[in-house]
């Protein structure tokens, strides 16, 4: 039997930015990162995964609104997220629930199951793993489709 691969593989910084075009110019032209994946719901890049050698990071342009005029909100963890890349984030979802953690229902975003918890200061911790389940599918919907509920 081989050595078991760890479930949590690495964490990815996630930065909310005020101007995606300027940020992409800085990270790609200035720092030499390359764009690996993008999300373009309104015809322009609003989220992206950048990579430079072994260092990934994600950027998302903040949708500033009248009721949310700042990128980072008004408390310590607002606007700060860490994204852990995992082998099986759904396994962690069940583990966290079993430990009494208030974990949000997983959903699929950017081709990944997203399991999210929020720490006491408002920091968002996301645990993600690859999937071919359609975008924006909730875990409960997926279970119903599979007939396991």
Summarize this entry quickly:
The chain is α+β, with helices and mostly antiparallel strands and 149 residues long.
Task: Report the average pLDDT across residues.
Answer: 87
Order of helices and strands: EHEEEEHEEEH
Largest sheet composition: 8 strands, mixed
Q: Which CATH class?
A: Alpha Beta
Name the overall outline: globular
Flag low-confidence runs.
Answer: none
User: So, CATH architecture?
Assistant: Roll
Strands ordered across the widest β-sheet: 2-3-4-1-5-8-7-6
When the domains are counted, the total is 1
The helix content is: 10-25%
Rg from alpha-carbon coordinates? 17 Å
Portion in beta strands: 25-35%
DSSP, total strands: 8
Structural overview:
By secondary structure, the chain is an alpha+beta fold. The chain has a single domain (8-63, 70-146), classed as 2,3-Dihydroxybiphenyl 1,2-Dioxygenase, domain 1 (Roll). It is 19% helix and 35% strand. It is built from 3 helices and 8 strands. It has helices at residues 20-30, 89-98, 139-146, and strands at residues 8-17, 34-39, 47-52, 55-61, 81-86, 107-109, 112-118, 124-130. Strand 6 and strand 7 form a beta hairpin. It starts with 7 loop residues before the first strand and ends with a helix.
């Amino acid at each position: 039997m081989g050595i078991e691969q760890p479930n949590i593989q690495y964490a990815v910084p996630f930065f909310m930015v005020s101007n995606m075009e300027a940020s992409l110019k800085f990270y790609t032209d200035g720092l030499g990162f390359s764009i690996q994946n993008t999300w373009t719901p309104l015809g322009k890049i609003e989220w992206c995964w950048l990579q430079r050698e072994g260092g990934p990071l994600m950027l998302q342009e903040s949708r500033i609104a009248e009721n949310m005029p700042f990128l980072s909100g008004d408390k310590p963890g607002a606007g700060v997220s860490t994204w852990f890349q995992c082998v099986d984030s759904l396994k962690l979802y069940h583990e966290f629930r079993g430990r009494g953690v208030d974990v949000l229902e997983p959903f699929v975003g950017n081709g990944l199951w997203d399991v999210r918890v929020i720490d006491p200061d408002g920091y968002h911790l996301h645990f993600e793993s690859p999937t071919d389940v359609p975008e924006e599918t909730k875990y409960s919907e997926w279970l119903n489709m599979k007939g396991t509920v």
